[in-house]
Amino acid sequence: MNLPTTTFLIVDDEELARVELRRQLTSLVPTFTCLEAGNLQEARAQLLDKRVNGVFLDLEMPGGHGMSFLPELQAMEVPVVLVTAHDRYAVEAYDGNVCDYLLKPIERTRLARALARIRQPEQDFDRKLLVLGDQSGCWPMYMDEIILIETQGPQSLFHLKDRTPILIPCSLKEIEQSLDPKQFVRVNRSQIVRLHCMKMISRREGSGNFESELEGHGMIEFSRRQSQAFRQRFGF
């Protein structure tokens, strides 16, 4: 007897909505395990206890909004499909890298597309996940998404590829310790740049310090100290 290998978690405070989604999933995926949660607390318990292949997440629920749950699911690297009666969260949801955004009542063709996106082998196991946070929450991102990190007071602003900037309550010094030194370089007291994103690095006339153009962010100027460290590191 073949045991089900696919497990989905449906998170919705309305039992009838969970029943209907389970029915539609069964018509498209005849053999799978269906877990259910009526709120975010129950969902966390299910995810700690079981390994799931995808989460179908409602948004407006008593005890916690589904959008606040996305960073945790991203950190777990679980594919997420949002299922809601409201379209006003769509832009924010796709910024959160969800697989799909389904409006209730769910159309069969749209659900089939969402399943295909969940199953698509998009995960690159060579990608390094970085999760930064404090007591208020956490912010997961892949290192290869980062273009520039710069100080904004006691916080740090992350400029990311194909995502809106994220302001994180961590100092640049704390963040630098979590980064891959082969991919990132400290250019001055207030900026860290991903090496791959810089164009030709040249010496400024007069000072001899380095500078480089960072696409979309203008010229990046190295401090004297970081210019010396860069020369020693790369031997020129």
Describe the fold and architecture.
A 5-stranded parallel sheet has the order 2-1-3-4-5, with helices on both faces. Strands 10-9-8-12-11 form a 5-stranded antiparallel sheet. The N and C termini lie far apart (65 Å). It has 7 helices and 15 strands. With 236 residues, the protein is α/β, with parallel strands linked by helices. The chain has helices at residues 15-28, 40-49, 70-75, 90-95, 108-119, 172-176, 224-234; strands at 7-11, 33-37, 54-57, 80-84, 100-103, 129-134, 137-142, 146-152, 155-160, 166-168, 184-188, 191-194, 198-203, 210-214, 218-221. It has 2 domains: 7-119, Rossmann fold (3-Layer(aba) Sandwich), CATH 3.40.50; 129-234, Beta Barrel (OB fold (Dihydrolipoamide Acetyltransferase, E2P)). The longest helix is centred in the first third of the chain and has 14 residues, at 15-28. Strand 8 and strand 9 form a beta hairpin.
